[in-house]
Records
---
Amino acid sequence: MKFTTNRSIPVASSGMRAMLLTSLLWMSGAVSAQVSLQDLIKADSSNWFSYSGSYGAQRHSSLKQIDTGNVGTLAPKWIYHLIGSGRQEAVPIVANGVMYVPQANEVNALDARTGRLIWKYQRGPAGGYNRGLAISGNKVYMGTADAAVVALDARSGGVAWETKMPGPSARYQGGAPLVVKDKVIIGAITPASGTVDAYDSETGKFLWRWNAVPKPGEPGNETWTGDSWKLGGVPTWLSGSYDPQLNLVYWGTGQPAPDFDGTVRPGDNLYSDCMVALDPDTGKMKWYFQFTPHDTHDWDAVEVPVLVDTIYEGQPRKLMLQANRNGYYYVLDRTNGKFLHGSAFVKSINWADGLTAEGRPIVVPGREPTVLGNKVCPATMGATNWPSPAYNPDTRYFYFIAFEGCGINYKATDKFPVTGGPAGGSGTGYVESPDEQEQWQAYVRALDATTGKLVWEYKQIGSHHYGPGVMSTAGGLVFAGDMQGYLTAHDARTGKPLWHFSTGDIITASPMAYSAQGNEYIAIVSGSNVVVFGLPDRAGSAR
């Protein structure tokens, strides 16, 4: 019997459904998904409560059963196939022995120990991307491809509430929601601009919206000449981070529109390519930092920012770290957005001659896209991209996927038509550089988190476009996938590869870790499959 929960799909009778659900939950060893706000703040590593694993988005697990000494014995424990799925970018979440895996308009709840399906929710046909979910209390939250936020009962998959996003023709771009106190916060795009929206986590009531493109009379609108602000863009298509002590949510924003024709939008084009700090209670912006003013190369800043409390130049500081698509690594003071450090993390940068003391790029003239094409390094795909970085508090290293290479950027016409909503089109295209020495190549890199100095790198042979994120563990490991479908475990201090496994399909998601009944696991979504790894079974361990 197919057991699903959705009003548009036949389901079992209520009595049979309850019996099946009770049986399956008993087999999974989890009868309650209750996750408190303190649980989210504490972020116990036996669970993986959010897209980034914790509010600080360090993607570091304190689990250390799997370490540098035994990782060579890591083996697949189970595989779950996402039916009807293509290449997936999701990061599963785990709460109290249950794994929740999304794809577009769908959630699968699995026994995290065996991969057995507990329940499945589907909202119409799949389409687009869904990169992750959020959980709080007994509810799992997702954004849908048709611009709704849905809260599901984590124990049954039943719909607790759903709220259509306000505004015409709006859509959620697949980024995972972030639950902060009593609010579900999610990024979106509307015809006017990208937004960050907040909903009441219990009722689904729409509470506030922050618009990434300021309207006339609002601070920042003067950075868009004339009516060019109406072209909009600035999508907020990934997730954010949160500091409970400062009560600030941090969200990265995308590129202005049109992406590559800056002649129709003179100015810095705030708040494109920015990191913004928002008050989660009101949606009011507290500060911003712009990485690439007047971007004409599509170098958005949506990569989830990493929050670190550490000593910086002899003083304890609350830092924010981001490797940006424009090729520079940034360290900011997250209390006020002050620029502290910036340095190049790729060898080829030809669009800027460094950064000023305030962190503003020193732009090299003549690198704008042209009708005939103009070479820019790094390429529009970015010196890194949206897949998540990680930070290990033991090594104090920042780990991420970097891309060397250049591209050729084109303007579509000499005069871009100022019509058509958010961008009216991108205004151009781009291709990989034809020079063999400038073609795209992925690396796993480790930087000293406070200085940006390269500590080690590992060349991912055969990976030449985008790539998955990374995760570090207290077992001294860094896990990274690649385009060839290999998941590799590296020594966190040296980068030496200690183990690898071919999953059989392209990996464009980030790995995560959790434990269940005393056993620790590493999980990755590869293509349309969830693949879970663990150490060999211990004598007497239960299955």
Note: The longest helix spans residues 14-28.
---
Amino acid sequence: MYLDVEGDPDRDFYYLIGLRISSESQPLRYSFWADTQDDERSMWANCLRILGELTSPRLFHYGAYETQFLKRMRARYPDIESSSQLDELISSAKNLLSVIYPHVYFPTYTNGLKDVAAYLGFRWSSDSPSGLVALGWRLQWEASREMNLKDRLIVYNAEDCEAAEKVAAVLAAVSSQESAPGTSFSTVNADALRREFPQRFGEVEFLLPEFRQINEAAYWDYQRSKVYVRSNNSLRRQKRKTAIRQSMGSIPVNRLVVMNEERPAACPRCTSCLIYSIGRTSQKVYDLKFSPAGVKRWVEKYSHRRFICWKCKTTFRLHTRKHKYGESLCAYLLYQFIELQIPQNAVANSVKELFKLPLSRGSINRLKASEASRLEPAYQSILERVVRGTLVHADETKVNVAGKDRYVWVFTNMEDVAFVYSESRDAATPQAILLNFRGVLISDFYAAYDSIPCAQQKCLVHLMRDLNEDLSTQPFNEEMKELAQNFASVLKPMIETVDRFGLKTYHLRRHKDSVKGFYAALSRCDYQTDAAIGYKRRFERNSGKLFTFLDYDGVPWNNNNAEHAIKAFVRLRRSIDGKSSAKGIRDYLVLLSVSETCKCRGISFLDFLRSGQPDISSFGSRSDEKSVR
């Protein structure tokens, strides 16, 4: 139903109530008139009598004037209707303006009913209709009692109700992404609109190459290093000092290691025995040295003998070239942008400022790829342990790769966490990962997990939150309230048992009778509301997956382990900010899997990286032996 009220604010008097009741055949229209202030009570009583004849009436109106009217009528005439029925009517009333203001933007000067409905094609029978004009008609009618003025007011009020119905129909069509009835305009999602000003930072696509060249000459760093430096002596000196300071070759060496290798017996290329020594070759390794009180830069220079085969003239060295960056420096960098989720640019600036090591973002990115390749066996071991276990938590989330939606899955148990990259969200990824899994899978209600052939436990926290959300939007749905209360009454004693005895089936199996009673009572319920019918089907469809934890030791009733793990990737995703490729994301996931597994096992991720160990389990056992000693 659509409600519109006319009144005189100066006298605190309402003289006309209009109701329009939607119907599939012909809408019903009611008008309730008060000649004087003494007739306001009977006008309100007649309106409530019509409302009382309807089943669960739902009022729609435009603006806060009608909401204030309902509250004042309840306070002014409390004896006319029961307070509970009126409270329900007031709480269910929907202000269409409150929907439009934060969500829908019409190309009109105001959000008033006259402007919005006129844009949607509605027309009033009178010229320039407004509430102020209507109040003038009312005052003229009180002075003259002319019937045409009263009829004009009633028609104006009824047309306001019809205009509100028009707006409501358009809002419903917009929310369902359908074309609005009786209209020819199209809707556009505001997120898809390009902002005119101010524009966000980012690359601009120019149609003319000349514009691109001119734009590149306007960048801050370009002008400062190429233009301003030619006319500013201070900037010229600053640039010269920065170039000297950022040179890797100018970093002093802390330790010189001279290797005196024996001359080889034969050439590795032609097997000739005529080998001569022709000087030495050197290599610097940049690293960090940790101590109980801090960390400092450490540079070692290795000097090796160089040999030449006199027959084939091949020059060679006997030593294997070391990595340019030492294990401790690599561990520190990975700890910064994996464990602490600091962007790579910020890590590069931090290392440059603290240790005077001018590492670029590119060198850090290459180091990340190298370390991910080194830790790939540890990652595969994590994934294998998850699949071989008796319990797996699973979840998934989106990631932006080159402007496209890709997905990251997490599979975890109590000690291991494995992240897996996927091009899509279909069931192929969990099916491939959990092909040989024979334990219990804990997940949300995403249908892809239903295809895994194993015992499953659905997250009851997800179900409880869904029930709570729908119950909050339908507070007067008694069927929903009864269903939610019955579910809570079954689940609460189980949680109390878990808190007291842990996840032991010996103590939990006594609750299986209450589960049978819950489903027996549910089968006898004949719900009428769509929400309750939907939840009844959901409970019945997942009857074998909601209380699996009662039959297995150590199986939780929620999916918090997977949700906690996926939050770690979400934090890392913010620091990446969509600037990584598919390979880069996979490298991140290998390192993040190792980091989160270390955290679950109580192992320092930084210590594990510094150790150079290839496997977390062996490192953890050695750490335990040291702690025992």
Note: Residues 460-555 form one domain.
---
Amino acid sequence: MRRLHPAQTCALALWLGSIWTCAAEILRSVPTPLPSHPGNIFLAGENVIVPAPPGEVDSWRAVDYEGNVAAKGRLQHGKAEAGKLPVGWYKIVRGVGHVTNRTFVCVVEPLRTATPLSSPICTDVAMAWFFPKERMEDVTSLCQLAGINRVRDRLSWQQMEPKRGEFSGHNQYDDSAEIQHAAGLQLLQVNHLSPDWANPTAKRFPPDLRDIYNFYREMARRWKGKVDAFEPWNEADIAMFGGHTGSEMATLQKAAYLGLKAGNPDVTACLNVFAIRRKTTLRDFQRNEAWPYFDTYNLHHYEPLENYSSLYADHRAVSAGKPIWVSECSVHVNWRGDEALKELGDEDLRLQSVRLTKTFALAIHEGAESIFYFMLPHYTEGKLQYGLLRPDLTPRPGYVALAAAGRLLSDAKPVGRIKTAAENVTGFLYRAKPDGKPADVLVIWSETAPSFELPKAPVACFDHLGRAIKAKVADRTLTISSAPIYAVLAEDSRPALSPPPTPPKLLTGEPGKVVIQAVLPEKESDLKVSAYKIEAGKEKIVPVFLYNFGANPLRGRLNVTVPSDWNVELSRETDLAPGERKEMSLLLKPLQTGTNSNVNIRIEGDFGPSEKPVLSVHFIATTE
């Protein structure tokens, strides 16, 4: 175990205490299904009774995940009564099998204890956008039954603040926050766009950071005790959501953090999340020393599973040792056939569920503390189908796999990756609380190897859907395939392991109230290198703004670091009134020729012992 310096330990304790203050107020109990069983989702031991699917005949059959008939009968009072089905996923087919004469059912193992507040199994629900108020309780129930800890929602700044300083009354976002919180779910909220009054180009950040500060201060106040965490912007590093540089993302983060903490000191101020791992953007962000201004380091990924090791390494390098939250992740699967249904084929339904389990297993091993699978509701982009539920809330097999992860990887912490001579075997060990009892849980799979031998016979085994795998008590050999299985190990029976990745050093620092911002046209940026173009040999004036988000007037100095063959001019001393946004002009002139064509301009401020703001902006001198 890596030891921290005493100062780091103190800072970490204070910071974690802030993160969990809201969470500690959440009351959870062991969930039970709603009487209406929304989505045809049942617990093991319940009688499965569902409305009949469309059709002309009165006979039905329940077909399981492998295509076997698990039950059959005739309709009674317009319903199919299948009795007590084992844990698993089923389709109830009426008459001849057509896509229009079936409905879907699943049976999941009931949770034995309430889901821990530190469990990594989370999902993106986007409740406020996808569901009307009358469906929200149904959806939160499905999250509870699956052992979900955190959920991610969606926010519209335009709707919440239609005019600067004028906030809306009670709306669907308040309903969503209240209903999910009342269900014991910890809520992460995210915004995507600027309102029209803050920036006519909605996908771009507002140029005045006071708008960001004021909005998040109000949201943190409004939802104190209901919304536990905020991401100030979604995927700002890609063109869809503005195509911002790392420097811009760091600057926005500072203002958003200060606003959130002013509204609710206990709220978790997450990083405005990275969509991809473009190293130039990550480095540009890192140079702006924003780590005192985020409680969690947030990222998204949709990369192939084999890329996870390098992907997480790139992000850990700039995470400042903060907890890693993956607020969107999955592996793409395409829908086929009827465009109205946008449904996955049988093979892709199975593929989605298998990949979900592997995604959680790999992400937890790499150090992610909260992993939000994208996504719970039916949702498509082009040919991609992301949803674990259909529009009527009936389950795809992926939902059953989610519930298995929620139960068997509850509160999971990584222990290591198995060492084996067979390179084609992948396995990860966790210390978790399956069914509420601390235990070692192994998740293992292989594309080609048929088996893996443990030091002792496991206590229990389950497939990726959470179905118990029968084995002899003395059998130490696991039968494995490309679909993962869970093995709950006996005491002192860990296989040989390689440790998980070492967490990076925790960087400490106090967030100051002074923020420095450069405002440059989007057309002058080069997103691939997270830089702005500047013509060699020509003077350029860069608008620089200083903000004082504190309550006291300040006076300080600025220092600019540039290459020796660049000319620079900037006023060195200035005053800042509380709430002021002061414009200054940074005059730059790169030489016509020379080696310093790709540089970072760094501005450092000194406004007192705890006010040392930093701005770093990357420029590329061109001859065009």
Note: Confidence is low (pLDDT under 50) at residues 1-24.
---
Amino acid sequence: MKFIHTWISSIFGPAPQQKEIKQQKKVLQHSLLFDADYYRSSYLKSAKLARLDPLKHYLTEGAQQLFNPGPEFDTAWYLSQKPDVRQSGVNPLYHFIQFGEVEGRSPVPEVHEPDGFSSPVVCNQKLWGGFSHLVLPRLEAFRAASNRKAYRIQSLWYLANWYYVHGQIALALELLVYLEELQGRLTKRVLVAKCKCFLVLGLPEKIVGIAFDEKARPILGKEVAYLEINSLGVEGDVFESRWLEKVNALYESCGLAGIHKADQQLPLSLFNLAPAEEFTPHSIQTGDKNAKVSVIVPAYNSAETIAIALNSLVSQTWSNMEILVIDDASTDGTREVIESFAQQYPHIVYLRNPKNLGAYPTRNQGYQKATGDFITVHDADDWSHPQKIEIQVEALLADSSLIATLSNWVRVNDNLAFVGPWMLCEDFLEKNHSSALIRRSAIEGIGPWDDVNVAGDTEFLWRLEKAFGCDSTLTVKPQVPLSFALTLDSSLTQNQTTHVKTIFYGLRRLYREAAAWWHDAQIEGQLYLDPAQRKFPCPLGNSRYGEREFDVLVAGDFSTANLAVDELVNYVRDLTQNSRAVLFHWPDYRSLGDAPIDAQVFEFCKGYGVTFTHAGNRVGAAKLVLVDGELAQWAPDNPPQVTGLEQVYILGTASDEQANRLKQLFLADA
């Protein structure tokens, strides 16, 4: 037997360990390239094998047998192109998602395709990576003209997702219907995506046709419950009773208490939810005192929603708790609502900022006042299950190696329909980053939240995991939502500059990469973040402070894909000797990969106090310098708008006409 294992390892590399499998499973379960139904019907045909988890089987055995995880990924071909992957034992699909896709590799054998692009995967990278106006026609060509079915399937999914996010719901639905016909079978991701489109279009009867279809239900799995709820309509006693029945079934399946209407005379809403039974509030002894939880609730102009959060917090089963509600200089009736709650509940403490600071600085104000052994935050328009705090605290008390616990949430609209994530996918649940319940000692060790406009939760959790290890956090009850997040619009009516889609191109991506660079560059014990002395560059749109007027804006490819990035850094360094400069990362459209900002760029920014502007941002600068004239052939989406722009320089060969076009591209109010 040992000989057999040695022989297998010599061909396929070492077998994956349980920790690796767990990590890979987290990544693969959200990939559109893994199709559990396809895998089961192709390779797990016997009654005995049919009971196995398809994804786990592919990770532990299937890939070594050259099984395909779906019709759009060719395991044998990919391994033939990457022999080092086979020798290392890394799962080929996992490698493709983590590395191959970024490198521009194809998941199936490449063939000649329109416009010279090798695969829709590369197009999708550029679609979200700042070149949508150039790539949309290419993806449309793929889905209409490709002679490879897998490429057409990929293109249809990518296009449907793009149109859904950008509010073109009917068009997204049309593409999904065509995609389903092309696939010739039902798949979970398309069924759920269609239902999300039906929800936005106000067609619950169409959701009924999918949620109660005998062929679709086994494929939908746990998502059936959410679709059944969304098929109920929006009003009436029948709707309310069925909604509570379905939601309580979810909670009861996980051993949690149900909920009901707090006031039977009022309509069902997030304002009118309460525990379905009386609880005896309790806490657990830790040493000579009860473990105390401080809940920080930032509130700005939240008069219409703050009662949702406070009603759910005063109903928590964990007794030793203080609720610090910090009014961020609201101008509506927020103060009056909070004070009315504080009069009824002594553990609610009202605090007020003298001026508006923003959500994360307000959290830090609350942290300074908090007296709990554990710290957590709660958004002013979220509802939480009455056992949420208790479950998260008990997990920490039961395992001293844990530093923080989190829980999942689901986004709902004001009709209590489940909306789910902002992009199309097969899930409704998401990890609620703001649910992190943290040991006070951990925050004292790594510092508070960063003083930014958005993405502070992500940076904080990454810093926490970097300091204490990825196994130091745990998501409790991951199969059920412990919070409902009220969302009024899933389209791009949100601020374009800070929208979550900028994790791919723009503000959030720049901030994440800069933070990750700092995390990786620190040695143990030096991960403390002082928001007043941040040690990595913060893109302009993510801070209320800092310079907004500059002498020169330098545009260029600052990524690792630029082989001359060291020369670029030297050029900017020389320029900053006599000028105030700001950078704009202009990705090279010709580069196949989706490369990050080069580390030496961040090191330079840190040393010289230089930062980035980005898509949608507005800055002042008299001069614009594009350091690579060839980049001008492929203008990026929504470049920063520059006020006071007088001179434009394109290094290398460039005509006056090109310089004028570049000026018009960046000139504010042009």
Note: The first strand starts at residue 259 and ends at 261.
